[in-house]
Design brief:
single chain, Immunoglobulin-like, 2 domains, 5-stranded antiparallel sheet, 4-stranded antiparallel sheet, elongated, Calcium-binding protein
Length: 199
């Protein structure tokens, strides 16, 4: 679900105003649109809230539909006429990504080596499953026991099958995780944390 809000100014009585995503060639992207009633802010001026739904689990979506889309708006009036507008805005529709993590051994002696592994996958809209997402640049982060924030320790690339593997020296007890920051076609994600006790 993608929320949107917009202001409509018109001297006519309108119905069914909506913003939408489109590409050259006339393609549009949504599965459902819900639009709230007009909130009047002045003569002939309405603020409108809308929700666009994209549901690849229920309706067919192509992987190629991920990426850049332009934003347009249209309204139909009670007299049967209509109007459309394009402000040149661009938004990015992204496929979900996922990360797993495993840090071992647990526990570990201070100064010894911790091996941190994991995998990057991404949603395939056409098969409705997650598949390996190789070659991604991913950050390994660490949060010491008692801390509330993570710090990036190093960055590595996943192999061609999306597998992650690196080693670090055990210095203190804490939690390890992987973070992927996404791109124009794929959303960012974080793995769960794996806590390792250092003795």
């Amino acid at each position: 679900m993608a929320p949107a809000s917009f202001r409509m100014t018109t001297t006519k009585q309108g119905k069914w105003p909506a913003v939408f995503l489109y590409r050259s060639g006339g393609d549009r992207l949504w599965h459902a649109i819900e639009t709230d009633d007009c909130v009047k802010v002045g003569p002939g001026v309405c603020d409108i809230t809308e929700r666009m739904y994209f549901q690849p689990r229920e309706y067919d979506m192509r992987n190629s539909e991920a990426g850049a889309w332009k934003v347009g708006a249209e309204v139909y009036f009670k007299d049967g006429s209509g109007d459309s507008d394009d402000k040149g805005m661009t938004v990015y529709v992204q496929r979900n990504s996922r990360l797993t993590v495993n840090a071992s051994p647990e526990p570990v002696t201070k100064g010894r080596t911790i091996t941190v592994t994991g995998k990057v996958t991404r949603a395939n809209w056409e098969t409705r499953k997650y598949a390996s997402y190789g070659g991604r640049h991913v950050s390994l982060q660490f949060k010491p026991s008692g801390s509330t924030s993570y710090t990036t320790v190093k960055k590595i690339y996943a192999d061609g099958s999306g597998n992650l593997r690196t080693t670090v020296k055990a210095s203190k007890t804490g939690t390890w995780r992987w973070v992927y920051y996404g791109n124009t076609t794929t959303g960012a994600s974080k793995s769960s944390g794996d806590n390792v006790v250092v003795k």
